[in-house]
């Protein structure tokens, strides 16, 4: 069992998705939902041992699986997780479970295909996080786009087709350069696609620079970093609630994970040389995108911009270098921020989805005084809003605080600019909260609102527990990542110049 | 000439095909229109017989026949098997299409089989003359096939265009061949290669001939700037014939390039590599860019073919066994994908209705979800998105050119395939995200459904397990070139 945990995490959702697909048209929607729920639950359960059996003192890969796949190109089905990737496999399975529940009654059109798309995507994303072979990673990384494209394009809002194609082409642009980079490295490492070999091979600075450009395009688009972020607000606004949740909670993390797994360890000297560019772009994302979020009139767009701003912290944490390597605080803070953002943004998008299902508007101006009609909902929304603005005791605080501590060690002005997010984040989130939730009942739509039902309550409660739990006891997360982060930092410190 | 030097056994599949096709030609004269299924069955038996003979006679070592004018080697055998499959699928898919349009006659079968014979000769020739004869047999059969619906104006126009431009290309090719003959005094590709290698052939004359030969190849493959006929012929031909033109001849064309350039003129590689780079980059660029502007599905697929043929050339110009086998893999994968793609178009057509506009695909996922999923497979495979096999074809080619130190070419190729992804995505968008204009589901017989499903699932299965086919291509190219 233990040695096949990662394969199970990948294939259980995919097989469940195929079963869901077999149920066919909407006359069997009930079955589709039930099978999807069972599949998502099973998919989540098989990932839990990844946490409980994870050896925290071990900085290398765990739960490894290795099987030749395409011998001609020396591509292996090589899986494994360390403290950097393990949480995202679990987070992904967890989010998928919530997404299935979130779409239970809301999706009435082509239910089987909707559920199947999410399950299959979940398996593919797990594959990308667990792959230790670069080409295997690429296959999962790319294949994931197919269900994502369909989810946004089929079940999205008004302008869904534009958003779906934009999302697909943007991400494909990045990943095609990644493909060339991988093939180049394949020949540099004497025909191996093992990520570990890529990390070991000595490369001249110029080559590292080119590779960094390729990695930057592939992963910065996914994160997304300023200035290649423009697909995200479109995709979020048009995606169905479940799509937004997965996008924000998981797929963005895949980009950040790519920086950590590929860009930093494969091109460390390039990071020392040109890492400041990424730092500058991250700071622009934090400050400028934070300001952009402030003026949004569409709730989903606002949260989308806030996601970009929060992800700025992540890339900042990775690329603030002290003595030629990222700081422990920076990397761990960034990882915590990634996980926390997974909970918080999923919660925020779900809250917006709850309101949208009732009123069919995402405009802030169409709401006001929701607290009067939906008190339970308002309480949950407050928690997520607070977490989004980084209030202590919520998960949002921990990551940002750690990154800011790390930044102080590097450069006061980095820390100063990063810390402005505590002001901006609070302003845009709480201002939106005030306009939507507080005040007098704005119109008859709001007056007619019904509070959350049991299903919605369950999703909100689970996410709320996660947000609070992580805020109160972050060690549960950091202690498992510590050894891997140390390994990474030691690796990045050593020059790879030939 | 003795019987031993004839070595007819090596050419057994061709001989069988020729005899069987001639027999079908005669038998069909005595068959009434309503019993045409007999011709269909006989054609299938012919294909199966040829496949059996090819598999049975398969050996890694090349077997020479007709005093060195013909060779049956592993590469040609594998390609021939692909051709049988493509022609067989084409005949099967087009049954009801052809019956609805009065094309379900003996000519369709015999001409297709003669075209197949031409392709097989192309794949197995080691002499400029036999290469040319094979090419002409293929081309003449195709010209006639395009013009099969006599009263259709687009088809006649396409046939005319195809014929005139094809004849021009043949002329170019022949002129180039005559230059090569003048420089080396031989039509045998091995002798030519030897003369080029030992420097006894006049270099200027050889390169002069080479330019014309590459031009001819460019025409036949449909590479930019010799691509003008491709969209018109694809659009104007009856879809069944488009399917044939778009699939199996690409395998033959690959063999043609291999015989002429790689086996015949390895010493001139520095010269033809440069020419092929120009053809490949232009094809990938123009093919992908112009495909975006198309509203006709067949025309769009025509431009997509042009770009795919550019990719195929990338593999060849890498100039390594890896590159050649990558190109061979690409050709086979492309043939499977193209057959499936045109198969969907073919099966969607009804009497008096050609499902060839992009708009006809609107809302297909609501009308016939099964069709839509099959087409989705085709589109994502053509766009080169994993896990479909099209991705591994692109991967193999790009890997080969990166190994040949042509990284910039790899970057150009992937950037244009990004542009290409757009129009494939648009097809998926039309099928899945638009409302249908016509709600009626598409009626297709169960056997065709199964056949097309197998065809499309092959793209997924080969994508999950591409290794065997990759190894097969690598070994057969290696053995045929005598480097293994």
UniProtKB/TrEMBL annotation, chain B:
Taxonomy, superkingdom: Bacteria
Topology relative to the membrane: Multi-pass membrane protein
InterPro entries to which the protein is assigned, alphabetical: NADH-Q_OxRdtase_suN/2, ND/Mrp_TM
Recorded catalytic activity of this chain's protein: a quinone + NADH + 5 H(+)(in) = a quinol + NAD(+) + 4 H(+)(out)
Enzyme class: translocase
Enzyme Commission no: 7.1.1.-
Domain NADH:quinone oxidoreductase/Mrp antiporter transmembrane: 125-419
Transmembrane segments: 15-31, 38-58, 78-94, 106-123, 129-148, 160-181, 201-219, 240-262, 274-293, 300-321, 327-349, 370-393, 405-425, 446-465
Record key words, sorted: Cell membrane, Membrane, NAD, Oxidoreductase, Quinone, Translocase, Transmembrane, Transmembrane helix, Transport, Ubiquinone
Compartments reported by the entry: Cell membrane; Endomembrane system; Membrane
Subunit structure: NDH-1 is composed of 14 different subunits. Subunits NuoA, H, J, K, L, M, N constitute the membrane sector of the complex.
Protein family: Belongs to the complex I subunit 2 family.
Entry function: NDH-1 shuttles electrons from NADH, via FMN and iron-sulfur (Fe-S) centers, to quinones in the respiratory chain. The immediate electron acceptor for the enzyme in this species is believed to be ubiquinone. Couples the redox reaction to proton translocation (for every two electrons transferred, four hydrogen ions are translocated across the cytoplasmic membrane), and thus conserves the redox energy in a proton gradient.
NCBIfam families listed in its UniProt record: NDH_I_N, PRK05777.1-5
Protein name, per record: NADH-quinone oxidoreductase subunit N
Species name: Chitinimonas viridis
Top-level taxonomy: Bacteria, Pseudomonadati, Pseudomonadota, Betaproteobacteria, Neisseriales
């Amino acid at each position: 069992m233990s040695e096949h945990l990662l394969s199970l995490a990948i294939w259980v959702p995919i097989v469940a998705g195929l079963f869901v697909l077999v149920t066919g048209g909407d006359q069997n929607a009930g079955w589709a939902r039930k099978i999807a729920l069972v599949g998502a639950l099973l998919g989540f359960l098989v990932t839990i041992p990844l946490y409980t059996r994870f050896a925290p003192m071990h900085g290398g890969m765990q739960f490894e699986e290795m099987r030749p796949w395409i011998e001609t190109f020396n591509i292996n089905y090589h899986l494994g997780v360390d403290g950097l990737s393990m949480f995202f496999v679990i987070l992904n399975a967890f989010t998928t479970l919530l997404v299935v529940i979130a779409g239970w009654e809301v999706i009435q059109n082509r239910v089987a295909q909707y559920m199947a798309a999410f399950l299959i995507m979940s398996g593919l994303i797990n594959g990308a996080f667990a792959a230790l072979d670069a080409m295997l990673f690429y296959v999962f990384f790319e294949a994931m786009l197919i269900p994502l494209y369909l989810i946004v394009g089929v079940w999205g809002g008004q302008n869904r087709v534009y958003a779906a194609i934009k999302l697909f082409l943007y991400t494909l642009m990045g990943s095609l350069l990644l493909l060339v980079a991988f093939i180049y490295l394949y020949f540099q490492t004497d025909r191996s696609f093992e990520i570990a070999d890529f990390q070991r091979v000595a490369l001249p600075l110029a080559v590292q620079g080119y590779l960094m450009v390729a990695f930057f395009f592939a992963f910065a688009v996914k994160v997304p970093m300023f200035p290649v972020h423009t697909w995200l607000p479109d995709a979020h606004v048009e995606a169905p609630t479940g799509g937004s949740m997965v996008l924000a909670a998981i797929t963005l993390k895949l980009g950040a994970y790519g920086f950590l797994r590929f860009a930093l360890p494969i091109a460390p000297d390039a990071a020392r040389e040109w890492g400041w560019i990424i730092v500058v772009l991250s700071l622009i994302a934090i400050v400028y995108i934070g300001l952009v979020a402030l003026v949004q009139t569409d709730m989903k767009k606002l949260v989308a911009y806030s996601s970009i701003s929060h992800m700025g912290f992540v890339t900042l944490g990775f690329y603030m270098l002290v003595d030629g390597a990222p700081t422990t605080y920076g990397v761990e803070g960034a990882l915590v921020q990634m996980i926390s953002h997974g909970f918080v943004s999923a919660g925020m998008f779900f809250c917006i989805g709850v309101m949208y299902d009732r009123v069919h508007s995402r405009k802030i101006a169409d709401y006001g005084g929701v607290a009067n009609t939906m008190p339970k909902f308002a309480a949950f929304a407050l928690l997520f809003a607070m977490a989004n603005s980084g209030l202590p005791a919520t998960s949002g605080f921990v990551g940002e605080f750690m990154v800011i501590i790390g930044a102080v060690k590097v450069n006061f002005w980095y820390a100063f600019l990063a810390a402005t997010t505590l002001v901006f984040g609070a302003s845009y989130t709480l201002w939106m909260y005030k306009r939507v939730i507080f005040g007098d009942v704005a119109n008859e739509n709001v007056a007619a609102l019904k509070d959350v039902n049991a299903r919605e309550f369950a999703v909100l409660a689970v996410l709320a527990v996660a947000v609070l739990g992580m805020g109160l006891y972050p060690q549960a997360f950091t202690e498992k990542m510590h050894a891997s982060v140390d390994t990474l930092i030691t690796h990045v410190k050593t020059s790879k110049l030939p | 000439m003795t019987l031993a030097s004839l070595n007819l056994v090596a050419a057994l599949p061709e001989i069988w095909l020729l005899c069987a096709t001639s027999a079908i030609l005669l038998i069909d004269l005595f068959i009434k229109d309503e019993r045409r299924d007999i011709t269909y069955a006989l054609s299938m038996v012919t294909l199966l017989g040829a496949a059996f003979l090819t598999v049975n006679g398969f050996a890694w070592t090349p077997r020479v026949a007709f005093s060195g004018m013909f060779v049956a080697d592993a590469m040609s055998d594998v390609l021939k098997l692909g051709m049988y499959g493509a022609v067989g699928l084409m005949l099967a898919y087009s049954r009801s299409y052809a019956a609805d349009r009065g094309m379900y006659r003996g000519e369709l079968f015999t001409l297709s089989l003669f075209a197949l014979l031409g392709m097989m000769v192309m794949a197995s020739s080691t002499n400029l003359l036999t290469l040319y004869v094979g090419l002409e047999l293929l081309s003449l059969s195709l010209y006639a096939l395009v013009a099969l619906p006599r009263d259709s104006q687009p088809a006649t126009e396409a046939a005319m265009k195809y014929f005139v431009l094809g004849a021009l290309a043949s002329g170019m090719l022949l002129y180039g061949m005559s230059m090569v003959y003048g420089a080396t005094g031989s039509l045998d590709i091995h002798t030519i290669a030897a003369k080029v290698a030992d420097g006894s052939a006049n270099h200027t004359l050889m390169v002069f001939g080479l330019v014309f030969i590459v031009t001819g190849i460019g025409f036949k493959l449909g590479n930019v700037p010799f691509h003008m006929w491709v969209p018109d012929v694809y659009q104007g031909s009856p879809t069944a014939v488009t399917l044939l033109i778009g699939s199996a001849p690409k395998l033959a064309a690959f063999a043609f390039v291999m015989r002429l350039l790689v086996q015949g003129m390895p010493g001139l590689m520095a010269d033809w590599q440069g020419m092929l780079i120009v053809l490949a980059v232009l094809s990938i660029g123009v093919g992908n860019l112009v495909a975006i502007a198309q509203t006709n599905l067949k025309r769009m697929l025509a431009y997509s073919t042009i770009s795919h043929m550019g990719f195929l050339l990338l593999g060849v110009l890498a100039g390594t066994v890896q590159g050649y086998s990558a190109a061979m893999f690409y050709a086979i994968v492309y043939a499977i994908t193209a057959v499936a793609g045109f198969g969907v178009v073919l099966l969607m057509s009804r009497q008096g209705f050609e499902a060839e506009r992009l708009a006809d695909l609107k809302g297909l996922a609501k009308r016939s979800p099964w069709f839509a999923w099959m087409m989705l497979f085709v589109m994502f495979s053509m766009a080169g998105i994993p896990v479909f096999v099209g991705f591994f074809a692109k991967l193999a080619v790009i890997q080969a050119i990166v190994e040949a130190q042509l990284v910039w070419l790899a970057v150009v190729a992937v950037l244009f395939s990004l542009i290409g992804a757009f129009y494939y995505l648009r097809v998926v968008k039309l099928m899945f995200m638009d409302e249908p204009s016509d709600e009626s589901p598409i009626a297709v017989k169960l056997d065709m459904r199964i056949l097309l499903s197998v065809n499309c699932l092959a793209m997924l299965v080969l994508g999950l397990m591409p290794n065997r086919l990759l190894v097969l291509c690598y070994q057969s190219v290696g053995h045929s070139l005598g480097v293994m």
